[in-house]
Amino acid sequence: MNPSRHPPYPGRFITFEGIDGAGKSTHIDYVTGLLKAKNRQVVLTREPGGTGLGEKLREILLHDKMTPETEALLMFAARREHLADIIEPALRRGEWVLSDRFTDASFAYQGGGRGLAREKLRQLETWVHPHLQPDLTFLFDVSPDIAQTRLEAARSPDKFEREKADFFNRVRGEYLRRAKEFPERFRIIDSSRPIAAIRETLKTLIGKLD
Ligand SMILES: Nc1ncnc2c1ncn2[C@@H]1O[C@H](COP(=O)(O)OP(=O)(O)O)[C@@H](O)[C@H]1O
Ligand SMILES: Cc1cn([C@H]2C[C@H](O)[C@@H](COP(=O)(O)OP(=O)(O)O)O2)c(=O)[nH]c1=O
Q1: Residue 124 C-alpha to ligand 2 middle, in angstroms?
Q2: Where in this chain does the entry annotate a coiled-coil region (predicted)?
């Protein structure tokens, strides 16, 4: 049970983070399978998105030009809906929520990437989810060069994916800084390795959860 939660929910909240192309989407399905094999009820979701309104905001966020402040506010607006409609009800029911990104992404992208002050993001975090943090965060860590090569082979880029290596170096740096700040919940996964090797790591880590 996560003691930082009030009230304490019986479910578990696991988030998947990393720069674009790091392999989150590839591995979230694998982890879902591992948990289902352990007879856990799993809710698979993503940010921005996860709700009807959240998915509409995602379309705007991924394609429209806006100030960094607007970007942060819309990310947290989508998150508020996500928490109220999906995440907290599932945790109350005792289910395992796996989310492709959460608030660490706002610190990494809007903070590290766009340069917004960390304190502003902390204020939004306190406003939107004062008593809830993930139980566990997998940080898929890889260089922007490798991620870019993988993405070029896979799909056409959205607004974020068109950013340059400098931007992703700052995003990666902020993710790693947060992993140091919250070592009890972060697990850094070396994502430069082949998919099979990463699966082995994930299997070991998931096997340790009760
Ligand atoms: N460890 C890996 N080695 C090689 N290719 C990978 C690896 N992980 C993911 N990929 C490929 O890279 C691309 C981006 O992966 P994806 O899971 O969509 O990343 P993300 O969700 O983090 O943006 C996909 O085509 C995927 O098959
Ligand atoms: C949740 C979140 C995502 N993002 C960005 C990161 C991603 O580039 C984009 C969409 O995330 P994601 O769903 O990971 O995109 P994809 O499936 O194409 O890899 O939104 C932020 O900038 N801040 C946030 O708080």
Answers
A1: 18
A2: none
Q: How far apart are CA 113 and CA 19, in angstroms?
A: 10
**What is the structure's pLDDT at 210?**
76
The top-level CATH class assigned to 13-207 is alpha beta
pTM for the whole structure: 0.96
Substitution site in 17, 109, 150 for ligand 1 pocket (most atoms within 8 Å of beta carbon): 150
Please tell me the residue having the least CA distance from ligand 1 atom 25. Answer: 154
Q: Please tell me if the CB atom of residue 100 comes closer than 6 angstroms to any atom of ligand 2.
A: yes
Q: Are 31 and 206 in contact (CB under 8 A)?
A: yes
Kindly report the length of the chain: 210
Sheet holding 96-100, edge to edge: 42-46, 96-100, 12-18, 136-141, 186-190
Residue 1 has pLDDT above 70, yes or no: no
